[in-house]
């Protein structure tokens, strides 16, 4: 049985985690922000929210009114009755407000951003904190599994840029869109990504492309 | 010479007693008086020598002829006014002070008969201004003449009404000591300036830098300090300072000018003075390790250089080095700087910080320039900061100064019939428009959680100061304990919810950001000041390092500091401290029981012992040595101990902790 925990997000928190992901540093920051939100006292009801679902998968869902995004959450969370008791990394680092801030300190450092190598940065530190570097390395090595549901009336352009679509992956080299006939709801989005429920089918894609042989004909 | 008086004019030709009388007058009246022959910051010269210009805030600018020059004097007056107008245009002051035909008659007094100055008090009464708008204009003109340029956008053209705006928009003028530092030519290679924090050291160094940079187009200048946040902050500040001072030359970064911290990194040699020196002279660069302190690295570098240049004189890496916050360094760094610098090394430090550090006390004696006045902080806040810093109101004082040291810290000292010591400070121009009954410091004892108290204080600030901006407030968490990070995260949420203000956690960003409320631990605050400061602590500790930060943080405000402490009988906040503050607020002075000589000796011994007390890091390293713990386990043991909050534990507990945990680490390593 999957465990879930939800939190409402204040506008500034939504701003911190709901933006198109661009790179692994962005991913690491998102994980750290989410961990911080989980450790804080829950907010009262707001328009945006996030949800951690841990079962066979471990995913964060962020819901900003009718747009959603989701990425993998690489840390273990001890949950009891809607309360987070502790967050630990797979390598055993305990995640608290202090270590989160120390990670941000590195991720914001202009010398690190100039040459984003954790190892390189580690050796340039006067007294590096091992736990902080371990945690960052662990997060950055994880597969982000980033997916976002979007609709954008202004940029919609037929089947090239469908009004309702999923953006899968984030880098320019590998991201792609999948068009949807209709708007998704939170539950649909979650359901598509949940490996413990039935799969979603790409029916339209099958009709248009797979019916034709994919193997290039030899002449 | 008093800090209220500055004279550019040497006595030749002029009645010597006039200058003396003016100086005495300025001192007794606590009124700034400048005697100049022309604008200080500009290289203007005049043919006529027998005239002087007398400046004093809130008074007309008086141009006095003491040589009966008639025609020549009239030309002098005309030339001077033309130059003043052109400087006013250069710094865009015309929008505030208006055209010369409008202010000439009202703000300038031409005196052809020098006998009018014989009765000085009467003379000043005759040229005193009353209209706030005229006062503002004359103060701005004076600032132009002495080169203490104020930002037009900051001082604004209207007369401010609220306390916050009055202090923010106050026209700042160099005092006598500051003016002398900026314009006097030094006599020795090393020039030291000492002053409390907030005496305007950094600002003065920037003025000096500007002067040195334009004077010689070939000069190479390095501006440095120990702390990276501060050097980054300065690096961002200097281009705007140069623009603002209308320096026409471009800043030639990393060719003629550097602004970086002292150490730097081996991979990028422009990143620090030391790293640049190692690169420039091709000598080994050492990075920090448990056996390599910065002092040691400098000592080795100097030794290498002395050996390298044993027979011939060295080529110089720099023309000038300017060092801020010199209390963070020791002699080895200064000597290295002197060796590689052709002309002058300017060393500016905080005397009080040095007083807290016994090892460096010797350097505080007789600096070349002593800045006694703290312009940042209201004297009442500063006194309370010192009182807490040195434990003056406590039964066991932590530190005691002799009379000269009190004076060096800017105090007026007297002893009453009951042998009690009275310490007071001169009032400051910056705060002269604020009512006397305004309390610039307040202690708040937190009954509930700290978060809600901080929100209450913020609400109070917003209510009292409708023009307040998020960046006007700094919240400083003084303690070393882990709770401060939880508190900061919670506060960010509470502040956003209540005020929708973005929060800048400076320990994550390492910068000060506009339009955001500043929230930091004690490590990222150096060189910063805010109209309002909220200092938060659970308990007043006795250690010198805690007391030092307590003093430094409390005095970061220039309007009001709120000192928030958890209500607890063991909080260290005694009745004596509260009464002491009450007396400061009511009477503008501290009254302290003088310790007897034996007690003074005891204080010193206790201080030296505390000073020598090993830090957590040192205790752990000693344990590692004693128990012969392999180096590869050190970092893990440190971080586990930190995570479990063991930093305050004694050696016995830590030893047991290390032994217990080592087992698991060794097991892991198989």
Protein described:
The complex is a heterodimer of chains A (219) and B (670). Chain A has 219 residues and is an alpha+beta fold. Chain A has one domain (3-209). Chain A contains eight helices and nine strands. Chain A has helices at 11-17, 24-39, 97-108, 110-114, 118-124, 130-141, 186-193, 203-210; strands at 3-9, 48-54, 58-64, 67-72, 76-80, 83-88, 147-151, 164-168, 176-180. In chain A, the strands form two sheets. In chain A, strands 1-2-3-4-7-8-9 form a seven-stranded antiparallel sheet, sandwiched between helices. Chain A has a two-stranded antiparallel sheet with strand order 5-6. The N and C termini of chain A lie far apart (54 Å). With 670 residues, chain B is an alpha/beta fold. Chain B has four domains: 5-154, no CATH class; 178-371, 3-Layer(aba) Sandwich (Rossmann fold); 379-606, Rossmann fold; 616-669. Chain B is globular, with a radius of gyration of 27 Å. Chain A binds chain B through residues 10-13, 36, 39-41, 43, 94, 96-98, 100-101, 104-105, 108-109, 111, 124, 126-131, and chain B through 265, 267, 287-288, 482, 485-486, 488-490, 492-493, 496-497, 500, 502, 505, 507-510, 635-636, 639, 642-643.
Average residue pLDDT of chain B: 89
Shape descriptor of chain A: globular
The number of helical runs of chain B is: 26
Oligomer: heterodimer
**Category by helix and strand content of chain A:** alpha+beta
Secondary-structure element string of chain A: EHHEEEEEHHHHEEEHH
Helix count from the secondary structure assignment of chain A = 8
Strands in their spatial order, largest beta sheet of chain B: 8-7-9-10-6-11
Please tally the β strands of chain A and state the result.
9
Number of domains of chain B: 4
Biggest beta-sheet profile of chain A: 7 strands, antiparallel
Q: Strand order of the main beta sheet of chain A, please?
A: 1-2-3-4-7-8-9
Helix content of chain A: 25-40%
The low-confidence runs of chain A, each spanning 5 or more residues with pLDDT under 50, are: none
- Which structural class matches the secondary elements of chain B? alpha/beta
Mean pLDDT reading of chain A: 89
Euclidean distance between termini CA atoms of chain A: 54 Å
Overall structural domain count of chain A: 1
Rg of chain A, please? 20 Å
Please report the total strand number of chain B as a whole number.
20
Low-confidence segments of chain B: 359-364
